[in-house]
Amino acid sequence: MEILFQTWPWYVSGFLIGMVMLSLIYFGKTFGMSSNLRSLCAMSGLGRKVGFFDFDWKAQRWNLVVVLGAMLGGFVAVHFMSDASNVAINPKTIAQLTQLGIDAPNGKLLPDALFSNAVFQSPKSIFILIIGGILIGFGTRYASGCTSGHAIYGLSSLQLPSLKAVIGFFIGGLIMAHFILPLIF
Amino acid sequence: MKALKYIVVGFIFGIVLTKSEAVSWYRIYEMFMFQSFHMYGIIMVAIITGVIGIQIIKRKNIKDFKGFPIEIIPKEPGSIRFWVGGILFGLGWALVGACPGPIFILLGAGFLPLLLVLFGALFGTFLYGVIKDKLPH
After folding, report:
1. Are A89 and B35 a contacting pair at CB < 8 A?
2. What is the ipTM of this complex?
């Protein structure tokens, strides 16, 4: 049982993520999280004003249910399946983060510097989180997919467009982590 | 009851992403700094599992649970959209350490600042919908 509380190894986790995608394919669906953002926009009635959101989002309700399940899973995993040994990242990474003024994990999933409730009092943190969100929302729709739709589903079905997108994800991520984050923090 | 199977699959997805720490800002940073194999291992094993599964489905002509043929949905053609959209998403991914799945998973776990990320992501999606026709794809 101890293993449930520790960090799950990459080979177990990767296999299970692959099986989640294959289950959805077996249910006659596809695997992609970012399209839910479009559905949520459509649900709010934007389809009357913007053509891109004028589609049958009700046919995508199953995916919103997957998201709901994922939220429940996140709740259970964080509150009932965690222990202090979690998020044991490379000590070199911790040292670099300390230099940037970002707190070490010590079992936490997220740094307080960006995700404690104190950020609601910090205009800079609010700005960072919203800008990050905009890049994610705009980028995934422009590229028509995110890590699940392109990196996992797209590459698993050997599609060239997904390879371009995934290379793009890493170019953007490397630029942010190596050159922009040090300027922000 | 049709919804139950999607809840269950989503539930497992949420637990796996949390317990593998793929939802962790730290793990994403560590990955982009090339200081751990963990995230690369997860992504590679997920793809290998997917490639093998999809090949089995294709070769054995496996039907879905309702008996319909399984079709893999092809991505739209184009190039610029994948490069530029991909890079923009990558910038956001490394900044807030979450892709769309983890945004929802972390919100479910009770990390309220993710509300700001979700708000941004919905606004970004809206923005794309508005200027889509003016963009090269």
Report:
1. yes
2. 0.96
For an interface test with A, which of B12, B82, B114, B119 has the most A Cβ atoms less than 10 Å from its Cβ?
B82
CA distances (Å), A124 to each of A69, A93, A119, A162, B95, in order?
Answer: 32, 23, 8, 34, 13
The closest alpha carbon to A59, from A30, A18, A25, A34, belongs to: A30
**A66 CB-near residues (< 8 Å, 6+ apart):** A24, B6, B7, B9, B10, B13
Out of A4, A62, A129, name the one closest to residue B96 (CB).
Answer: A129
Cα four-point dihedral sign B94, B96, B97, B101: negative
Q: What is the pLDDT of residues B5-21, one digit of tens each?
A: 999 999 999 999 999 99
Q: Do B16 and A151 touch (CB under 8 A)?
A: no
- Is B82 in Cβ contact with A115 (below 8 Å)? no
* Whether A147 contacts B3, CB under 8 Å: no
A residues 63-92 closer than 8 Å to B (CB) = 63, 65-79, 81, 86-87, 89-90, 92
In chain A, % of residues over pLDDT 70: 100
Q: Whole-angstrom Cα distance, residue B86 to residue B73?
A: 19
C-alpha pair distances (Å), B82 with each of A155, A157, B136: 13, 17, 11
Task: Round to whole Å and give the CA distance between B125 and B117.
Answer: 12
Pairwise CA distance, residues B8 & A173, whole Å: 31
